[in-house]
């Protein structure tokens, strides 16, 4: 009898607290939370664009959307996301479709966990 292994992917999430502090400094808590919430929503839209470009094989669109998402994630302190986005851009520019698919899947896992981490941090008192 053959036994199959089940792989579980656990991505370590790193959020730069200094970026989050910069969002909150000099602003009312509700204003900072709105900025953070809009940033997360915009990032989700960019990730959806990345996925569409990936599925259609549109390398130029994928690279452009990934660069925009990485810049936004950097402003939100999402270090893990920006690092993996760079890997996705490199794979796309190299024409490495299998690598691109694996990195895209990893990026989706990271964005899901990062958004949760940011929302959890937002609920903490700054």
Walk me through what this model shows.
The structure is a single chain. The chain has 126 residues and is mostly helical. The protein is built from 5 helices and no strands. It is globular. The N and C termini lie far apart (55 Å).
Helix residue percentage: over 70%
Write the CATH fold name: Four Helix Bundle (Hemerythrin (Met), subunit A)
Q: Judging by the overall fold, what is the CATH architecture?
A: Up-down Bundle
**How many runs of DSSP E, i.e. beta strands?**
0
Name the descriptors.
126 residues; mainly alpha
In a nutshell, what does this entry contain?
The protein has 126 residues and is an all-alpha fold.
SSE blueprint:
Blueprint: H1 17-24, H2 29-56, H3 59-75, H4 79-94, H5 97-122
């Amino acid at each position: 009898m053959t036994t199959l292994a089940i792989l579980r992917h656990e991505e370590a999430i790193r959020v730069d607290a200094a970026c989050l502090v910069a969002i909150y400094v000099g602003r009312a808590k509700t204003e900072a939370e709105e900025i953070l919430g809009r940033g997360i929503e915009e990032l989700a839209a960019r990730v959806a664009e990345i996925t569409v470009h990936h599925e259609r094989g549109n390398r130029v669109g994928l690279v452009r959307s990934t660069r925009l998402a990485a810049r936004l994630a950097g402003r939100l302190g999402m270090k893990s996301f920006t690092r993996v986005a760079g890997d996705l851009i490199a794979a796309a520019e190299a024409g490495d479709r299998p690598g691109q698919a694996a990195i895209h899947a990893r990026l989706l896992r990271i964005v899901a966990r990062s958004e949760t981490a940011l929302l959890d941090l937002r609920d903490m008192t700054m």
